[in-house]
Write a sequence for this structure.
């Protein structure tokens, strides 16, 4: 089995013991690497957040695994960061990415009609601080392309009546790049970087309910 398949199987097992109506983080490695539960423990915060990110995932893979990563947990709130790996491939257009993203959101809304979904702005990258092996990728997945994709994510959130959130301010240097001290190799974020945005994301995690429909679940 691949690493992705192993994680899916592990999540399936873990999902048997989840508490419905909580918060789920879903996406690729940038979500999987967010040490949210470590931070919650450090702050003495009892909030339940299930992280179902899978490194290397592209949007079509999350769509295929949407039950394991999101629906089976029956969350009240979902934070999604998916698509940066799509942006790394010149053969995948932003339009193709958004088509898959749209299907993911639709699947969640159909299964959990009152769900509150937070579509996260893609994090910036830093070509100048990148390792040599990462630079070729960042020629494709550059900050200009990320900004264009973020506009499409924002439009997608508006289409569905969900929330687009940008918590990247603390991550950016004066040129709009991912701060060199916050990146591992130009793309991924280190623990200090995640600490810098912890308070910002927790404000959304803890904000009052903003969708008016009563919490309900699709019958299994």
């Amino acid at each position: 089995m691949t690493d992705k398949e192993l994680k899916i199987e592990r999540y399936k097992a873990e999902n048997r013991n989840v508490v419905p109506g909580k918060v789920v983080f879903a996406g690729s490695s940038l979500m999987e690497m967010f040490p949210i539960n470590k931070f919650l423990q450090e702050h003495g915060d009892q909030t339940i957040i299930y992280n179902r990110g899978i490194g290397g995932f592209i949007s079509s893979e999350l769509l295929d695994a949407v039950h394991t990563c999101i629906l089976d947990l029956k969350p009240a709130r979902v934070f999604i960061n998916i698509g940066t790996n799509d942006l790394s491939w010149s053969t995948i257009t932003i339009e193709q990415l958004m088509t898959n993203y749209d299907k993911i959101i639709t699947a969640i809304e159909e299964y959990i009609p009152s769900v509150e979904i937070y579509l996260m702005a893609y994090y910036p990258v830093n070509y100048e601080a990148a390792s040599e092996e990462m630079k070729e990728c960042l020629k494709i997945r550059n900050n200009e392309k990320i900004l264009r994709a973020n506009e499409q994510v924002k439009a997608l959130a508006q289409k569905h009546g969900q929330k687009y959130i940008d918590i990247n301010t603390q991550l950016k240097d004066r040129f709009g790049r991912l701060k060199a001290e916050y990146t591992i190799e130009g793309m991924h974020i280190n623990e200090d970087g995640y600490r810098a945005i912890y308070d910002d994301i927790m404000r959304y995690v803890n904000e009052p309910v903003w969708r008016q429909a009563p919490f309900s679940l699709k019958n299994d």
User: Anything to note?
Assistant: The beta strands are 23-27, 49-51, 77-81, 116-120, 163-165. Residues 121 and 166 are 5 Å apart (CA to CA).
